[in-house]
Design a protein that fits this description.
It contains 15 helices and ten strands. It has 357 residues and is α/β, with parallel strands linked by helices. The chain starts with a helix and ends in a 6-residue tail after the last helix.
Amino acid sequence: MPRFLNAMAKRKVRRGIPVLFALAVFALSAFSGEALAQARRLTVVCSVQIEWCELIRKEYQNTSGVRMVVIHRSSIDALAMLMSERNNPRTDVWFGGTGDPHLQAAEQGLTVEYKSRVFDDLQPWAQEQARRGSFRTVGLYTGVLGIAYDADQVKRLHAEPPKCWRDMVRPQFDRQIMMGNPTSSGTGFLILSALTQLFGEDEAIAYMKGLHKNVAQYTHGGRGSIENVVRGEAAVAIGFLHDAITARERGAKLEFSLPCEGTPAEIGSLSLIGGGTNLKEAILFYEWALSPEAQALARRASAFQSPSNRKVSIDPRTPNVDLDRLIRYDHLRFGSSEIRKRLLTRWINEVNVPDNE
């Protein structure tokens, strides 16, 4: 029982309150304390590496005393879950995952408008993500999309290492490409939308028809494409630089290149989910997640995204990126639910169909 309630109960007993009533006060106080402890809970849907999800759960529980439940979902699956639970939200915070689904959630009113106390400490790209989403989301980290490949496997195919998007449609790479499924993977949708921006919508769909012939598997999540190459199931993956670095830290022999035509950088995001019962606890976690202390945890989980808080240094194992290869990705356009629906409909009906296999 909390001390102040204990003291109050004792004072009442000393003033002549019957012992039976005093015991009732004690019982009620104990129940209230237990109820308060149980109320300090938080449910987070987490769209980064599972190792990072588990680390933030353990660290935040130890720091705050809050009982924290983490649900691991790809960013597309997380968005679908929020949409299905619109009238009865079961989660409080959405941590990480590509930024476009976060913007779509903001557009649909699934997330809460909030400006962090440390907003001024964030990188400009993280602040801009917040403004795009009317402060219903914010940038948490960034990572660059590119081509990861096993040089030995590429050599066995008698192919040159892929350095451009168009290299991956060469016949030497028949059934040798791994990429995320645009309908279930935020990475997969980013590939589709980036190609649309680079080449135009019709040409992007035409390119993906050619690429489809070389795709061994569309993975459910973006990281899985790189993991499949590490296991020797294909030679090339389209994925994020930070995931390739994570694999190399475990001993994988992967090379990485940024496509010569240009490539985007994602803005992994953080959002407060609307309609939940734990908004106060959610805000406390949200502030913690943007703090230098929390963002520095990524290294312990071998997560090599660039953090949004400017007070956190970039891990030295992260190589310098050729900024000339980065396109000015239109987050607002591809964060639109209408554009997403149209592109996915075309991909399903024109690309991922049996006639093209």
